[in-house]
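can u pls check wat happens w/ S-adenosylmethionine
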Amino acid sequence: MFEKKLLQIAHPRPTDDEGLVLLEGAEEGEMIFSGKAVSLVSGEKYPVKSGYLDLLGRRSGADNIANLTNFLPGAGRGYEPLWRVRSLDILTGEEFSNEREVEIMAGLSGVEKGGVFLDLGCSAGLYTRSLAKVLGGEGSVVGIDISPSMLREAARRAKRFGASSSSLPSFARADAENLPFADESMDGALCGGSLNEFGDPGRVLRETRRVLRSEGRIAIMGILRARTKNGLRLQKLLSMGGVRFFEEDEIRSMLARSGFDSDVFRTFGSVFFAGAASR
Ligand SMILES: C[S@@+](CC[C@H](N)C(=O)[O-])C[C@H]1O[C@@H](n2cnc3c(N)ncnc32)[C@H](O)[C@@H]1O
């Protein structure tokens, strides 16, 4: 599903200097649930099906083994019930509900001002649908991911557990390293756990800066480099699959080099929450 008015900021090719238009489709209110959008610049068509607008087509967008595991059948269905509901309890070493992290992330993203928000590497859409609920129709959220399995599940969960049909989020299959959106078309971005998995996290931050309006905010939740021997051993194993772990100063300098001013950095065990505003 994809909000019709957001087609105008969808620029799948760097040469697209105008948005997409709906060619055919099933709409309900503001949302397109199936059909095809077209670029009048390139003539290329992009389907809306299985709950998302597919802007990647045959390209996988995957950079590493960790990325590919998210394409496995069942990856989307299992992600939240098997991992996500408990992930921050495990990683922080304290009781840390999804509601608590969503509240922190919403606060860091500047959602109270409304506008258009982007969820980078949304998986099953926890942040996407939660932010849509917070916005309650006073803005829009687009969750992007490269994995069809995750996006299908994200759309299913948003319909089932989201607030109401008037605050449904949009989903697109898209590569965060080559964001298919117009310059300065968004007001804020969220990135939960995904920075650890992107092949080129610096490039994702630069792309995010490009699509954000000035003073637009980014909220990041991620995992820091371990401090214990066992933690380091586990992280070394995971890094073979392409997952990377950061020091606080690496995050701050990556943000600064990408055009952001960091203002908040909070840590809970090995989890960090960072907030920054685009210059
Ligand atoms: C750790 S999970 C994200 C969790 C999710 N944000 C949440 O809070 O539940 C990382 C996700 O990023 C996606 N991903 C990896 N590389 C990507 C890329 N280049 N562009 C978009 N999504 C990507 C993966 O498919 C995976 O679903």
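The first helix runs from residue 65 to 69.
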